[in-house]
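ok, trying the design again with the full structure, not the truncated one.
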């Protein structure tokens, strides 16, 4: 019996997508070494009354107004140093890895990536599903990887000597036995002001309410300050949460909805997971990302490109049935094909981006 190839997986743990990655890698016959982690530091807390009083003294008496921030940075450094040390110990227990796959590799320190590189026998790759200019820390370690893939066409145009085109993927899941839709429209997103999509989200929600459409819109807030301001930014029909919905639960909600909504982030032009999932799960899509028209799966019966303001032609679009696509398109954007393409394991369909 041949041994399973060993793949090291590094990524963040927010929304538990890493669990689905592990499950699907194991389905493909890999032994997975998981070094994913929560890259968001826990809220700062004073470790003792003495520390709290000391910080108060520095602020009020010594006029050191940034004392708490200094303590917060030190606590953050200790927190992640401990995590990285534990990762290094785990890596040491393996003689080698056949492959190493990092999703958003900038969340790992360079020395750790170098250690993984020394132990990787075939291919060490990174896939960046955020714009390179949004998270430029990846440039500190980009040359460590054998291949770096980027989902943003603009990044591939600007840095074609450094990155290779790829797109997001969808996980193949069992279709629900209940084929009815609980909602007309579904959207889940984070409140990040620099994404520049708050107004469009609110505009659509308000219009849907006037039309009597049933929506399932939820905004995730990363901190209490943002959560407390939810009602100042969004209408009442949009739910707020401080707990991220798991990636698996998100897919289940997509399955229960007739149309998926996608609001483009101002910081990149790459296609979101939701866009690719609309293909794989055969759902209609309304998106503010006009780049989607350049992809091979685009069909105007399935995808409506919205300007974020007017609703001309939207109801006509909604009245049209979903247009089935060629089987090879569904296969191309599946996780299975994505993985074989990323790791260069033929046969696979090449995943290209618009020039």
């Amino acid at each position: 019996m041949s041994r399973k190839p060993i793949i090291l997986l590094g990524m963040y743990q927010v929304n538990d997508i890493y669990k689905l990655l592990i499950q699907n890698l194991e389905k493909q016959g890999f032994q997975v070494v998981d070094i994913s982690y929560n890259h968001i530091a826990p809220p700062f807390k004073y470790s003792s009354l003495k520390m709290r009083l000391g910080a108060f003294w520095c602020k009020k008496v010594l006029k050191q107004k940034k004392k708490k921030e200094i303590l917060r940075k030190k606590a953050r450094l200790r927190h992640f140093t401990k995590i990285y040390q534990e990762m290094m110990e785990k890596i040491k227990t393996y003689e080698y890895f056949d492959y190493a796959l990092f999703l958003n590799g900038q969340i790992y320190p360079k020395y750790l990536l170098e250690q993984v590189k020394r132990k990787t026998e075939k291919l060490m790759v990174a896939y960046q599903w955020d714009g390179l200019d949004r998270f430029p820390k990846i440039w500190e370690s980009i040359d460590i990887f054998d291949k770096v893939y980027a989902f943003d066409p603009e990044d591939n145009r600007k840095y074609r000597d450094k990155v290779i085109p790829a797109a997001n993927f969808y996980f193949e899941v069992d279709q629900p036995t209940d084929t009815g839709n609980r909602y007309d429209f579904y959207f889940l997103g984070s409140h990040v002001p620099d994404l520049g999509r708050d107004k469009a989200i609110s505009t659509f929600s308000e219009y849907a309410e006037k039309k009597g459409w049933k929506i399932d819109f939820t905004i995730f807030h990363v901190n209490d300050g943002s959560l407390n301001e939810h009602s100042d930014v969004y209408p009442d029909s949009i739910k707020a949460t401080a707990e991220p919905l798991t990636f698996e639960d998100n897919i289940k909600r997509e399955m229960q909805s007739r149309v998926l909504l996608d609001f483009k982030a101002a910081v990149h032009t790459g296609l979101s997971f939701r866009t690719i999932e609309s293909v794989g799960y055969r759902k209609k899509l309304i998106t503010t990302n006009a780049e989607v028209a350049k992809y091979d799966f685009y069909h105007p019966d399935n995808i409506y490109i919205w300007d974020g303001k007017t609703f001309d032609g939207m109801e006509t679009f909604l009245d049209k049935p979903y247009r089935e696509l060629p089987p090879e398109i569904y296969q191309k954007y599946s996780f299975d094909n994505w993985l074989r393409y990323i790791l260069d394991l033929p046969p696979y369909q090449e995943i290209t981006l618009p020039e």
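Keeping the full-length input from now on. The first strand starts at residue 6 and ends at 10.
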